[in-house]
Design goal:
This protein has 2 domains: 3-103, Winged helix-like DNA-binding domain superfamily/Winged helix DNA-binding domain (Arc Repressor Mutant, subunit A, Orthogonal Bundle); 121-358, Rossmann fold (3-Layer(aba) Sandwich). 49% of the residues lie in helices and 15% in strands. The protein is built from 15 helices and 9 strands. The chain has helices at residues 3-39, 41-47, 54-61, 65-77, 94-97, 109-120, 123-132, 144-155, 160-164, 171-177, 190-198, 211-224, 260-270, 297-313, 325-335, and strands spanning 82-84, 89-91, 180-184, 203-208, 229-233, 245-251, 271-282, 340-344, 352-358. Helix 1 (3-39) packs across helix 6 (109-120), helix 3 packs across helix 4 and helix 6 packs antiparallel against helix 8 (144-155). The N and C termini lie far apart (62 Å). Bound molecules: S-adenosylmethionine.
Length: 359
């Protein structure tokens, strides 16, 4: 190799090593961000009128000072928190609080950061799957359902009435009047609970495979005194309703199915003739080359490998993965019997797309 080529190669290697160093620090900060969210440290910092010492922050948060100080070390050197060495005080700038605190609602990136830690918990099992095949089942994912519910509470539940329902012509009026609604893969049921509260004349059902999430949702319905919503443990591959629902929803729950084609056919059959299927799924192309430059693509393929794809493969399923993408999704919807499919994106949401499908 000529001397100039060698130099260019060394520059490229240095630049790439720098990028990987950034990835390492980014991953570390994501884990610390998850901890900051779970312990309420960001909220406590934002609530303080003045910068705080590590002792003051630990006291305010009811946490151990030594841990808080080390966390602040990561936050300071990661340029999330400002530090004044003269006074030993730390400050969370307002602009950072706006994306790291509960006050930020759906914009709180501390919520999504928790996925990194949840997924890290199954790394050994995933490595084993790389060698042996198969998958890691839902039961192995610890806090997954809790984090998922927190995440979708921001991205979906909060957006339902202002942004998502209006995507379906006349749907809000039908809900006001009284219709029958089913949510497949309802998780902890927050979407159905919110709609049941908002539309007392309509009836809502949530199906999920997981007994724990269904029990959680049932308890929430009881606690809120909502008589127009019910939750049932059900494998949606097996439900056999015919023309029974006016609206069926699926929030982030099709691509990790073991048998997504069967589930889509079941949904199509269960919808009344003039019914609507509203599906939220990931904003991505089915072709990896089209996802280069997507601001969340590495995160999405990681979630897929470590969760969405593997939970499907654990059931000998299709393993579509998080980035099955709009091309394949539309094809499968049409094969399931939907003649009209529109794909909508929302301005504030770079992660999801909303499919409105009718028969
Ligand atoms: C990614 S989570 C989404 C949960 C919820 N829709 C939300 O947005 O928070 C996917 C859900 O689908 C459920 N699920 C997966 N396969 C299922 C099946 N065959 N029948 C019913 N639920 C299923 C899982 O238990 C999980 O709660």
């Amino acid at each position: 190799m000529c001397a100039q080529c060698e130099m260019l190669n060394a520059d490229a290697t240095d630049a790439f090593a720098g990028k990987m160093l950034g990835a390492l620090n980014g991953a570390a900060l994501a884990m610390m961000t998850s901890i900051g969210h779970r312990t309420g440290l960001f909220d406590a910092m934002a609530a303080s009128d003045t910068p705080v010492t590590s002792q003051e922050l630990a006291f305010k948060s009811g946490l151990q000072e030594r841990y808080v100080r080390e966390w602040l070390g990561a936050m300071t050197t990661g340029e999330i928190v400002d530090y004044d060495a003269e006074t030993s005080r730390y400050d969370l700038p307002e602009a950072h609080a706006a994306v790291l605190t509960r006050e930020a609602g759906a914009g709180n990136m501390g919520i999504a950061a928790q996925f990194i830690s949840v997924l890290g918990g199954v790394e050994d099992k995933i490595v084993n799957c790389f060698h042996q095949g198969g998958g890691v089942p839902y039961e192995e994912f610890g806090r997954f359902h809790e984090v998922m519910a927190e995440e979708s509470n921001g991205t979906v539940v909060g957006g339902l009435r202002p942004h998502i329902l209006p995507l379906c012509d006349g749907l809000e009026a039908r809900l006001e009047k009284g219709i029958s609604v089913l949510d497949v893969g309802c998780g902890r049921g927050r979407a159905m609970l919110a709609l049941a509260d908002a539309y007392p004349a309509s009836h809502f059902t949530g199906y999920d495979l997981c007994a724990e999430t269904v029990a959680y949702a049932q308890e929430q319905a009881r606690a809120r005194g909502l008589a127009n919503v019910r939750f049932e443990q059900m494998d949606v591959t097996r439900f056999d309703a015919v023309e029974s629902f006016d609206l069926i929803t699926a929030f982030d729950s099709i691509h990790d199915q073991a048998a997504p084609a069967t589930v889509l056919s079941n949904i199509s059959r269960a919808l009344k003739k003039d019914g609507v299927f509203l599906m939220q799924d990931i904003s991505a192309s089915s072709e990896v080359q089209n996802n280069i430059g997507h601001p969340l693509a590495p995160f999405l393929y990681t979630i897929s490998t470590m969760h969405c794809m593997t939970v499907s493969l654990a059931q000998d399923g299709a393993g579509l993965g998080t980035c099955w993408g709009r091309e394949l999704a539309e094809k499968m919807l049409r094969e399931a019997g939907f003649t009209s499919v529109t794909i909508n994106s929302l301005e504030h949401d770079i992660m999801n797309e909303f499919y409105v499908a009718t028969k």
